Every structure is written in C-alpha cells, then in structure tokens.
Amino acid sequence: QIKYREENGAIVVEKVTLSEQYHGKKIALPETIDGNLLSIIDTGAFSESAQLGIKFDVVLPVNVYKIASGAFEDSLVSYVTAPGVQTIEANAFKNCISLVHVETRYLKSLDATAFDGCDKLQGIPAILEWFDYSTEANGIVIEGFSENYPGYDKVAIPAWFDSTLVIKIAD
C-alpha cells in the first residue's frame, strides 16, 4: 500500500506499507498513480519495514528523481535500482544494515551522510561527471571520496558502464 500526496502534478511517496508477503521480494513502484508521475521518495517512506522485519529489494521508476532525507533510514532494503535519481539527501539510507548495492545513472547530488551505518554496502553510486576523477592505466581514481566513506576501496560499476572498468577510491 502506498500513501502519497500530489504536488504540482507530481507524486510524492510518503509511506510504503509492506506486509510479510513482501519479505525477501523485489518491489517495483509504479511509474504513475492517478495519472501523475512518481517523482520523490519522501522522508520515512520505508521506515515501517524495519519494525516489521521485512527485508526487500526495490526498483524505482525512472521518473523518480529524488530520494529525500531519511527515506529508507533503518529499513532492511538490500538492493536499490534507481535509474533516474539525481539527488540522494542526508541520511537517506542511514543504518540500512542489509543494504548491499544502489544502482543509479544520473546522480548529481549525493549527501556525505546518505549511507552512514550501511556496513554491508558494496556498490555505491559513482557517476563520473559528478566526482573529481583521473584516469589511470588500470582504471579510474575518484579523488577525495573515501573521506566520507572510510573503508571503501572499490566502487561497484553500474551495469551501464563497461564491466571491465575498475574504479578505485583515492586516499
């Protein structure tokens, strides 16, 4: 069940209520509700899932451009496909202890605290047009990123990149 509000012809998802039947499943949100495009995943939208112990994957439609502060905070999401997301705000995935991977293509703004407490995170959005980077013989080095994500020495490459490309985090 999705609780939402309409703002200027766009849908803002306020709350997604998951029941036990969704545990371990991939959830795909619809592109439209009542003829309006889903655009924003709002603060606390998936917070109830942790209280119910529901672990899940989520696929956001390409028209969702923002994941708001705390949208998935404390949830048990493990894999997020967010192809159109341009902004991930502060604490959007804070303490998502099951989160392993986030895939996005058009990220322009990533808050430094977006993934705090995500200890299992292996793949993080790395969009070369947004980060300072340099090319080396063995891949691409992203400058200064590890300051906000200590302990990460590699970034998983989204599927739309050449799979042979390696990205390393600079110290």
Q: Could you please describe the fold and organization of this structure?
A:
This protein has 171 residues and is mainly β. 3% of the residues lie in helices and 33% in strands. The chain is built from one helix and 14 strands. The chain has one helix at residues 48-52, and strands at residues 2-7, 10-16, 25-28, 32-33, 36-41, 55-59, 66-67, 76-81, 87-88, 101-103, 109-110, 133-136, 139-142, 167-169. Strands 1, 2, 4, 5, 7, 9 and 11 form a seven-stranded mixed β-sheet that branches. A four-stranded parallel β-sheet has the order 3-6-8-10, with no helix packed on it. A three-stranded mixed β-sheet has the order 12-13-14, with no helix packed on it. Strand 1 (2-7) and strand 2 (10-16) form a beta hairpin. The radius of gyration is 16 Å and the shape is globular. It starts with a strand and ends with a strand.
Return the string of H and E elements: EEEEEHEEEEEEEEE
**Spatial shape:** globular
Radius of gyration (CA) equals 16 Å
Quaternary organisation: single chain
Portion in strands: 25-35%
Structural class comes to mainly beta
User: Would you tell me the overall average pLDDT?
Assistant: 78
User: What's the count of strands?
Assistant: 14
SS summary, helix count: 1
Helix content range: under 10%
> First CA to last CA: what distance?
44 Å
Largest pleated sheet:
7 strands, mixed
